[in-house]
Amino acid sequence: MNFFKKVYDAVRQIPEGKVATYGQIALAVGSPRAARQVGYALHVNPQPGIIPCHRVVNRFGSLAPAFAFGGKEVQASLLLAEGVEVDSEFCVDLTTYLYQGEFIME
């Protein structure tokens, strides 16, 4: 299975109302040092309505400054619609919203 497919499969597992970090996704797909590549895979997400890339943030909880599908304001509104609070600095509180579950990879 190629890297991008693994990334998309992992991101689909993030439940509504939670976020994961690029590093978490990289670790889940077996490439723990590939957080930037995860970001690129999400930037070229072929199914933005199906693969919820808006649920992925950086290790500090910050939204993507160049969210591929409309900027950080759009990412924030998508998260807010799912019950994830985003502060005025476009940051999510990871102590509250970080997905702690296991990613099941085939």
- Number of DSSP-assigned strands: 2
Q: How do the strands line up in the largest sheet? A: 1-2
Distance between the termini: 9 Å
Cα-atom radius of gyration: 12 Å
Number of helices: 5
Low-confidence stretches: none
Question: What portion of residues belong to β-strands?
Answer: under 5%
Report mean pLDDT, rounded to a whole number.
94
Global shape: globular
| Classification by helices and strands | mainly alpha
Quick one: biggest sheet? 2 strands, parallel
* Helix and strand sequence: HEHHEHH
Give a description of the structure.
By secondary structure, the protein is mostly helical. 37% of the residues lie in helices and 4% in strands. It is built from five helices and two strands. The protein has helices spanning 3-11, 22-28, 35-43, 72-81, 94-97; strands spanning 20-21, 56-57. A two-stranded parallel sheet has the order 1-2. Helix 2 crosses helix 3 (35-43). The protein is globular, with a radius of gyration of 12 Å. The termini are close together.
Top keywords for this entry?
single chain; 106 residues; mainly alpha; two-stranded parallel sheet; 5 helices; globular
Task: Provide a short characterization of the protein structure.
The chain has 106 residues and is mostly helical.
Can you lay out the helices and strands and say which pair or pack?
Elements: H1 3-11, E1 20-21, H2 22-28, H3 35-43, E2 56-57, H4 72-81, H5 94-97
Parallel strand pairs: 1-2
